[in-house]
Amino acid sequence: MTNKKQTETFARICSVTGLGMWDGWVFNDGEFYAGDEKSAEKIALNLGYKDIEDAYKQDACYWTDWGEDKEENAQYIQVDGHIYDYAGEDAPLEMYGTEYLPII
Fold it and tell me: Is the pLDDT of residue 63 over 90?
């Protein structure tokens, strides 16, 4: 990571905003992620549910926190405004693909 400034690592990327997150909603066993309630509501509606509560009651989503062990749970890193897959401090950076972002 020469000549690059490490700014922050993340466990997941919000499927609506494209922002990194350490906690939030998981939909369809990891198909989509939401970092805030507004994003979760958009995903739930897009998937055909009335709202987040309806999706939750039908086991289509749940809320979680990956922040307990940040080094182990970090999957992405933001460097110089770009998000990369993260495999550890000394690993080479590979640009994160955003083919499904945003879903709405």
Answer: yes
